[in-house]
Task: inverse folding
């Protein structure tokens, strides 16, 4: 924590609930509210009155947290226990990747975590399966008024009665990726374009790492060409795409393939975990990575750390901004929890202002809490400013069909393959058409 804070404050990152008046923790939204009503209900910095536990005691809970956050979440839970010292808790924290949370919940919610982290695109499937409990009625106003509107909106879906319902506690406003680089290899000017970044890495005999086989990142190829998603069709299953110019999309894919082939040996498709390790061992000059790896990338680079929004790529003489996937992260409550009130209270606490600020300090995560967003830790962070800038050039990661990821990853793998011919327009067009067909028809 001290190390990250020292880096932040030294200027390396200079670029970038219970709202009702009763003890109701039922799983539906309240009609309206204000910060005043929240305060009257006994909320103070995500801490509530004991009465909201009801008769629950000797409470046993399981919490899922991503690897990077496990130790900090454990510390925060110890503080939670001190806050509610009159209750007896047995809380276990288990490492569980957020990207797999929905799959594990859907496998068997009865043995899954009571409280768990999840990305925004997984919420709809959890709601459809009925395994996630909505934010407790008495919490809704507090959560809504203390977090950014976009995160609340993305966490709100229709319930079985067709009513807008907040289904999870906003945790971050930064679930996206950006360009991270060694500033002794890549200059801020180089970082503005993909061509400049690759050339700088090549000159230094360093790798540029981009996970082209993962649909979360590979969709950038298609999105930049205008093939953007727009939620789901009316059936709630099939991925919806905006209207796009196929010829322009094909030209963009060819531009990527051409540039990748030109910089063969420099452009390297690897899992993002190789970005930080590459910085540490001196083989990586730049890469595309996300906020979740901020701390380890900063540790690897020290005062050589650089960050920027994704660069542009030149397509037939026009510099086009790379378009990415961007979403949010939440803390959810298992609808099968044996201690539903305590699970809601813990989720509220972990998603509260103090805990979010700690995660910003120690992990570099971008907060959804409005007060923390105003902190210099956020406003003076190169990473969070880069992600914020990139979010303006992105598709929102909500209502994503489960069939989206594999075909997009396949497209990325094809584009970067040695045998792919960037000049073959017909093959590129067929690859794009097959990708869209596989995403939609398999839905």
Result:
């Amino acid at each position: 924590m001290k190390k990250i804070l020292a880096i932040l404050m030294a200027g390396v990152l200079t670029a970038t609930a219970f709202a009702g008046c009763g003890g109701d923790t039922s799983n539906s939204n309240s009609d309206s509210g204000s910060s005043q009503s929240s305060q009257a209900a006994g909320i103070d910095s995500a801490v509530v009155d004991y009465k909201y536990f009801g008769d629950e005691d000797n409470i046993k809970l399981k919490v899922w947290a991503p690897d990077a956050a496990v130790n900090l979440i454990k510390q925060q839970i110890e503080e939670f226990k001190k806050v509610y010292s009159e209750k007896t808790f047995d809380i276990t924290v288990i490492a569980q990747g957020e990207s797999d949370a929905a799959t594990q919940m859907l496998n068997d919610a009865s043995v899954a975590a009571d409280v768990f982290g999840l990305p925004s695109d997984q919420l709809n499937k959890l709601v459809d399966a009925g395994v996630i409990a909505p934010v407790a009625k008495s919490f809704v106003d507090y959560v809504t008024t203390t977090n950014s509107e976009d995160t609340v909106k993305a966490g709100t879906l229709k319930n079985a009665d067709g009513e807008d319902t907040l289904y999870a506690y906003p945790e971050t406003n930064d679930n996206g990726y950006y360009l991270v680089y060694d500033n002794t290899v890549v200059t801020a000017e180089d970082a503005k374009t993909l061509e400049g970044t690759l050339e700088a890495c090549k000159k230094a005999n360093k790798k540029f790492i981009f996970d082209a086989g993962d649909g979360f990142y590979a969709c950038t190829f298609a999105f930049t060409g205008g093939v953007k998603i727009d939620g789901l069709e009316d059936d709630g299953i099939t991925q919806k795409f905006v209207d796009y110019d196929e010829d322009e999309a094909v030209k963009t894919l060819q531009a990527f393939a051409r540039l990748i082939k030109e910089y063969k040996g420099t452009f390297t498709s690897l899992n993002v975990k190789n970005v930080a390790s590459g910085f540490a061992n001196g083989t990586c000059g730049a890469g595309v990575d996300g906020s979740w790896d901020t701390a380890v990338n900063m540790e690897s680079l020290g005062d050589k750390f650089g960050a920027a929004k994704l660069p542009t790529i030149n397509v037939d003489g026009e510099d086009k901004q790379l378009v990415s996937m961007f979403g949010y992260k939440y803390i959810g409550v298992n609808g099968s929890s044996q201690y539903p009130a305590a699970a809601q209270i813990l989720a509220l606490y972990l998603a509260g202002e103090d805990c979010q600020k700690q995660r910003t300090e120690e992990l570099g995560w971008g907060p959804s809490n409005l007060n923390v967003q105003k902190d210099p830790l956020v406003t003076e962070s190169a990473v969070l400013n880069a992600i914020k800038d990139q979010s303006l050039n992105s598709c929102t990661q909500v209502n994503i069909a489960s069939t989206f990821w594999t075909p997009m990853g396949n497209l990325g793998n094809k584009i970067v393959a040695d045998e792919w011919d960037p000049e073959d327009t017909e093959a590129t067009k067929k690859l794009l058409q097959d990708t869209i067909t596989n995403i939609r028809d398999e839905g």
